[in-house]
Amino acid sequence: MSKSLKRVRATLEAAGVRPDIRETALARTAQDAAAALGCEVNQIAKSIVLRGENSGTAVLFITAGARQVDLDRAAELSGEPLGKADAALIRAQTGFAIGGVAPLGHLTPPRAWFDRSLLEFPLVWAAAGTPHHVFGLAPAKIAQLSGAQTSDFSVTS
After folding, report:
1. pTM for the full model?
2. Each residue of 9-37: pLDDT tens digit?
3. Phi-psi region of 103 (alpha: psi -120 to 50; beta: other; left: phi over 0)
4. Fewer Cβ neighbours under 10 Å: the N or C end of the chain?
5. Residues 58, 49: contact at Cβ < 8 Å?
């Protein structure tokens, strides 16, 4: 088991959650994950990591699979201009590689926001630290465990 997957599992277990972690052929994209799980694309909680242009730190936006982060609204929420985070920043701050970034279990927890539209579902799925593993959990619990503030920042893609 990878270190990243172990960290996600340990974070969930420490919070008293019996994790439903599933291995998929591929879950690098929301479409891949939804197809593998047989669920709606919007039941996939994507972890989008951006770079705070002033702070130089990773900023996390957890959004529904078929939605995109509205960069103007995200910048407003974060209080700074945002740009693309490179793989090195994502790995250094979260401990995850692109394609497997979980919403929780980060090495250094980033400032985070959670897409209110995910709360429409009783269960959503998120990356569990690798491009081949996902976990299912109530969206409000993911928001709580990620330390994210629930907000409206996404648009339909």
Report:
1. 0.95
2. 999 999 999 989 999 887 778 998 999 99
3. alpha
4. N
5. yes
